[in-house]
Design a protein that fits this description.
Elements (H helix, E strand, L loop, with lengths): L13 H20 L4 H25 L6 H35 L11 H25 L4 H22 L1
Helix pairs in contact: 1-2, 1-3, 2-3, 2-5, 3-4, 4-5
Length: about 170
């Protein structure tokens, strides 16, 4: 989380991988459940958790580094769980705003949420991108720019998948 260590410093066992994936998924259900119906929150969390595994396995295999999967995925899940936990409060604060937008006939008339909430989202988004880029950079044995590209490509994948799924 402080960019001092890489995924190679994480445990590479299946128990750590499964535990970090489970914690990530549960926290994501809680966060998404603040703004969507519970059934959809579970669906979205399970799909996002699975997509991380599929994406990481694919990217690592493309570089011939499939043996790094467990440590890389554990790192991504653990970092994601930590960021999601931190974002529970700002997400809760955004809930009235998001509900108002969903119900408004003219979304531009809905007052913006407090500035500190928006700032929290932006700051955590940037910090999350830095963390994920750092993880991918180490896992792929590459430049920071390839790490940033891999992290952004995953975010685009999530947007596309959830746009298609509705």
């Amino acid at each position: 989380m402080l960019l001092r260590r890489g995924p190679q410093d994480m445990p590479g066992d299946q128990t750590s991988l499964a535990a970090s994936a489970a914690v990530y998924c549960i926290l994501l259900v809680l966060q998404v459940g603040l703004i969507t119906p519970p059934g959809y929150a579970v669906f979205q969390a399970v799909v996002a958790t699975a997509l991380i595994a599929i994406y990481v396995r694919t990217v690592l295999r493309m570089r011939g580094l499939g043996n790094r999967f467990a440590q890389t995925a554990t790192s991504l899940y653990a970092a994601g769980a930590t960021l999601t936990l931190i974002m529970l409060a700002p997400t809760h604060a955004m809930t009235p705003y998001l509900e108002a937008i969903a119900q408004a006939s003219d979304p531009q008339q809905v007052p913006m949420p407090p500035g500190y909430v928006v700032l929290a989202y932006v700051a955590m988004g940037v910090w999350g991108l830095a963390i994920y880029s750092h993880i991918y950079r180490h896992a792929l044995d590459s430049s920071i720019w390839l790490g940033v590209g891999a992290a952004l490509a995953f975010e685009v994948l999530l947007l596309v998948v959830f746009s298609v799924l509705g």
